């Protein structure tokens, strides 16, 4: 291992074992959050979110297609992610990397398992035509904790997405030219990511904290339902039962403050 990362690892770990973080935050403190909705004119829903120096832009693009055979009355939702090379030296152009696939899947799972989008209301004609939502995530700047930042961007984009009113007439879908409907979003999702370094469990890791983590856990908590809908474990080391319970407790405790930015 290179000598500089090893020195950094020991320095940050020593700080955390002493109850401190390199940037001065408390263990349960997030970085500053900034949300700007409607940033893409040609998307029906979009948002830009900054979490510290991490920045993600999300666009929602609907189209009309056929439902899946096993869910003829449900709309379709697909999430894609692109880690732009300008965001970080380690991101490269080409096929999706394992990191981009994991990010898209974590965000997508949270949306599905929380059932925050009413997919039944995206059905235009059962078994024939439904709305299909394509959610595209673009990482602009990477300074740690892409999961929480991307989820906030997706939530903001979904909340401001509007669809043309659609009718099924004579085996064709007719779209209104001047009447729209809000995307049927019936809940909100708070995603909270924690990392274990040394003896400490910290919320919203920065890039340098992510680079030396022992373990990571991301917890999705719904707003209205107030229940856990998703979890994702990362890192090579295990987490103790107390670590997981502490993370769950903090995810619920900080949920309202995190979701207040969407208002």
What is the CATH C-level name of the largest domain?
Answer: Alpha Beta
Strand content: 35-45%
Q: With helices defined by DSSP (H or I, 4 residues minimum), what is the helix count?
A: 6
Low-confidence stretches: none
User: Given the helix and strand composition, which structural class is it?
Assistant: alpha+beta
Number of domains: 2
Q: What is the second-level CATH architecture of the largest domain?
A: 2-Layer Sandwich
Task: Based on Cα principal axes, name the global outline.
Answer: elongated
- Please describe the biggest sheet, giving its number of strands, its sense, and whether it closes into a barrel: 6 strands, mixed
Which fold name is given in CATH as the topology of the largest domain?
Ribosomal Protein S5, domain 2
Q: How many runs of DSSP E, i.e. beta strands?
A: 12
How do the helices and strands follow one another from N- to C-terminus?
HEEEEHEEHEEEEHEEHH
Terminal Cα span = 45 Å
Specify the CATH homologous superfamily of the largest domain.
GHMP Kinase, N-terminal domain
Query: Mean of the pLDDT scores?
Result: 94
Helix share of residues? 25-40%
Over all CA atoms, what is the radius of gyration?
A: 20 Å
Q: Quick summary of this structure?
A:
Residues 30-164, 191-253 form the Exoribonuclease phosphorolytic domain. By secondary structure, the chain is an alpha+beta fold.
């Amino acid at each position: 291992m290179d000598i500089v990362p090893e020195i950094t690892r020991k320095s940050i770990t020593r700080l955390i074992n002493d109850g401190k973080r390199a940037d001065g935050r408390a263990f349960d403190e997030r970085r500053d959050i900034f949300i700007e909705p409607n940033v893409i004119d040609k998307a029906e829903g979009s948002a830009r979110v900054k979490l510290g120096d991490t920045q993600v832009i999300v666009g929602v693009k609907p189209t009309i297609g056929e439902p899946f055979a096993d869910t003829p009355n449900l709309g379709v939702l697909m999430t894609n992610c692109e880690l732009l090379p300008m965001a970080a030296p380690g991101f490269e152009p080409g096929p999706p990397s394992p990191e981009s696939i994991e990010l898209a899947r974590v965000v997508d799972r949270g949306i599905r398992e929380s059932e925050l989008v009413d997919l039944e209301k995206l059905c235009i004609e059962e078994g024939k035509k439904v709305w299909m939502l394509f959610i595209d995530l673009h990482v602009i700047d990477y300074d740690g904790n892409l999961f929480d930042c991307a989820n906030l961007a997706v939530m903001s984009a979904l909340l401001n997405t509007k669809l043309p009113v659609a009718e099924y007439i004579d085996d064709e879908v007719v779209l209104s030219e001047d009447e729209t409907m809000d995307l049927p979003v019936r809940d909100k999702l708070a995603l909270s990511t924690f990392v274990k370094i040394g003896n400490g469990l910290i919320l919203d890791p920065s890039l340098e904290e992510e680079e030396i983590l022992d373990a990571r856990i991301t917890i999705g908590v719904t707003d209205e339902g107030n229940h856990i809908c998703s979890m994702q474990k990362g890192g090579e080391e295990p987490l103790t039962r107390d670590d997981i319970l502490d993370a769950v407790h903090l995810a619920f405790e900080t949920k309202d403050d995190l979701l207040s930015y969407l208002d």
